[in-house]
Every structure is written in C-alpha cells, then in structure tokens.
Specification:
With 295 residues, the chain is mainly alpha-helical. It has helices at 9-23, 33-42, 49-61, 66-86, 103-106, 109-127, 135-149, 154-163, 171-196, 201-228, 231-234, 240-243, 249-272, 281-292; strands at residues 96-97, 100-101. The mean pLDDT is 92.
Length: 295
C-alpha cells in the first residue's frame, strides 16, 4: 500500500467542511444563541474521521457523488450532536472538547441540549435531499443512519457506558458497549458511503467487517490516549475516564495489552479488505491512522 492518510484526509476534510458550512447557513431571522451553538459545535475543528470514512468507502467501490456528500454531512451532524450530549453534566460532565469549552459551558445547558436535538434532526433532513434523484437510495441511507445512531446503536451504547460506571465489566461486556457507542456510527459512516456509490451486498458485508474492527480500534486507541496523551494534544481532559471510574481497555488489559488489542484489530481491518483492489487503499491507510494517532 502506497497511500498515506495525509495524502487525502485534508482534501476530504476541506470538502465536508465546505458542505457543512452550506448546511449550517441559517436565515438572518434565525440568528440566535441556538444557531450560534450549533455552528460552534460543528465547525470548531475535529478529525472528521466519520465523513472521511464515508468518502473513502465510496471511493473503494465507485465514485463520490451528491449522495455521498449528504451521507458524509449527516454522519458528522449526528457525531456533533452526540458529543454535545455526551459532555453534559448528566452524562460525562466534560468542560473541554477539541481544545475549547464544551457547548454547555460556552453557552448554557438548555441551549446545548436543544443544539444537539436540532443537529440530530438536521442530519435526517440532509439525507432527504437524496430522495430528489433516488427515493430508494434515500431510504437505504436513512435506514443505515437510524440503525447506527439510535436505540440499536450509539444511544444504547451510551446507556450501557453510563450503567458501567463504578462496575467491573469483562472484556466481552466492554466490547458490547463500544461496538454500539463508537463502532455503530463508524460502521454506518462506511456503509453509507459505500451504498451511495453502488456497493453490492458482498462489498457491504466486507466493509461492515472492516468497520467493526476499526470502530473498536478507535475506542481502544482513545482509551490509550486517555492515559498517555496530554490535554493540549488530545483536546479534552486527559484522565477523564479514570476520574469518572469508567471501565476502559487499559483498566482491563493494561497499557501493553490495550496496545496489543489495537494492533490485532488493525490486522483484522486490513484482512477484511482483502477482496478489494487498490481503490480501497484509502481505507487501509485510515486503519493505520486510527491505531497510530496521538489525538
């Protein structure tokens, strides 16, 4: 593989940022703290790994198109909403995100809740634009997003994560939490990109296997960085999980064991792409990036 993540991620980030700027342009009559909070939470940087995966998956099976753009925007809007709510006092009670005050600190708690609510519905509204040229594709994409973001995916993962505080789940239980909380939306991002470009059922199955592996790898690396990183580099409070007494891969496996787990998941992700040609090299490079990132 000759592709480096740095060779395409900046272009994809630029593309999605430009699209999000358009999506989040509200009429002057709507200029209120709510819309300021929405833009603050989405347009304040971030790795954009989910939309990048959407674009890379589309590239692996076909070509990026308008449905891919809508999918990439939708997954990032869902991600932004989830971070706003995840940071709330009733959840993880964080005051720093991406190196900046979290939404409820920069504005207030009620505004943050409403901004998250608005971003969630805006994600589905964005996908509805696909219906103008392909109602069937629109329904497919909506179904994938619902499954990834809702009570069978990210939301139930967050509920399980909260319930596990001060407990000692085993590795299988921890993986159940993170396959839902983190992995479900990463998987949805990949499949939505692939479906937008015409992926067949075999390609979708292989990409789902890839998504399962990198979704867990992403969380394992997050847990490692919570111990080894610095607040300045990772953009959120270092040691936050330990302070909340949350179970992590590091607490279960130790730092060395967690690194071995990330390496194993990395290899599983690459193996899942064995039937794809060089067009999937971007996905292979993202797998490398996820387990080697420092923020």
């Amino acid at each position: 593989m000759s592709v480096s993540a740095t060779s395409f991620i900046p272009a994809y980030k630029s593309r999605i940022d430009s699209h999000l700027e358009t999506v989040l342009t509200f009429p002057d009559s709507h200029s209120s703290s709510l819309f300021d909070a929405i833009r603050y939470s989405v347009l304040n940087g971030g790795k954009r790994i989910r939309p990048v995966l959407t674009y890379a998956a589309a590239t692996a099976v076909g070509e990026i198109n308008l449905a891919t753009d809508a999918s990439a925007a939708a997954v990032e809007l869902i991600h932004a909403y989830s971070l706003i709510h995840d940071d709330l006092p009733a959840m993880d009670d964080d005051d720093l995100r991406r190196g900046m005050p979290t939404c409820h600190i920069a504005f207030d708690e009620a505004t943050a809740i409403l901004a998250g609510d608005a971003l969630q519905t805006l994600a589905f509204e964005e996908l509805l634009t696909v219906a103008a040229h392909s109602p069937q594709l629109c329904v497919q994409l909506l179904s994938l997003l619902c499954r990834g973001a809702g009570a069978s995916g990210m939301v139930v993962g967050q509920a399980l994560d909260i319930a596990a505080v001060n407990l000692s789940p085993d590795l299988q239980q921890l993986e159940q939490i993170h396959c839902n909380k983190t992995g479900a939306m990463i998987n949805a991002s990949i499949l939505m990109g692939a479906v937008s470009a015409g992926a067949d059922s075999q390609q979708q199955a292989a990409l789902s296997e890839y998504g399962d592996a990198i979704g867990l790898a992403f969380q394992v690396q997050d847990d490692i960085l919570d111990v080894t990183g610095t607040t300045e580099v990772i953009g959120k409070r270092q040691g936050a999980d330990e302070a909340l007494n949350k179970p992590t891969y590091v607490t279960l496996l130790g730092l060395g064991g967690a690194r071995e787990k990330a390496a194993d998941l990395h290899q599983k992700a690459l193996a899942a792409l064995r039937t794809f040609d060089s067009r999937a090299d971007q996905l292979r490079a993202i797998a490398d990036y996820i387990v080697n990132r420092n923020s």
